[in-house]
């Protein structure tokens, strides 16, 4: 899809056209390391997230999850190693990398005085895309925003509703990779389930999703793989398909309580 496409150019409201067999690597960390003075926040991370995959990063507070997301977004610079987004090294060309990546922080920052539709229109234009009113409404609806809320000011929205606008912005900018930090914290179970449904839909459309979370239940519900981080290291990676939520919890607790392996 080209940037600045004409209205109507996006056949399925911002979906990246992909064949079902397209499983390109969208996010890749190669020995990615971040050190803050005495703290090794991320220690030689090697990770690949492919198109259509939902990879969940688990780990205790301070394990390095947010650091990982921020390195892919180039909010911070790595100490060593590489972070690639759709094969673009974010340190070499952060603007090009950011064009294909979308980020949903724990608190979605949007304009409270604009409506959901106006926020989406504004951020779509910033990303170089223009949509008709009906396309904007369809994007918001696809991310689960109720029709009667679309023209209300965002200041009146719940956290879950603001997230839906944030997800529709990711769709509108035709992001190939979506990063989320603790998206279900503070959501009620219904809102958390709706988020899972939308993430699964985006992944089916070919987006690669990387999510930092403490929510083991949603990891099982939504994730395709889960990685457990401990003190800056990725200590385990599991496929979620054949696991129960309780298995995931046991695995997580085992890794949290196992003795440190010497570097
Ligand atoms: N700006 C900074 N200066 C110094 N240390 C930092 C900085 N940012 C993060 N750290 C440290 O890096 C380590 C990893 O932090 P990070 O925020 O990535 O953890 P996290 O897994 O996201 O934790 P949480 O679940 O609490 O969000 C922690 O020890 C943290 O204190």
From TrEMBL:
It comes from the Bacteria. The keyword Nucleotide-binding applies. Belongs to the ABC transporter superfamily. This is ABC-2 type transport system ATP-binding protein. GO terms for molecular function: ATP binding; ATP hydrolysis activity. Keywords: ATP-binding, Nucleotide-binding, Transport. The keyword Heme does not apply. InterPro entries: AAA+_ATPase, ABC_transporter-like_ATP-bd, ABC_transporter-like_CS, ABC_Transporter_VariousFunc, P-loop_NTPase. It comes from Methylocapsa palsarum. Residues 27-256 form the ABC transporter domain. It holds the Pfam family ABC_tran.
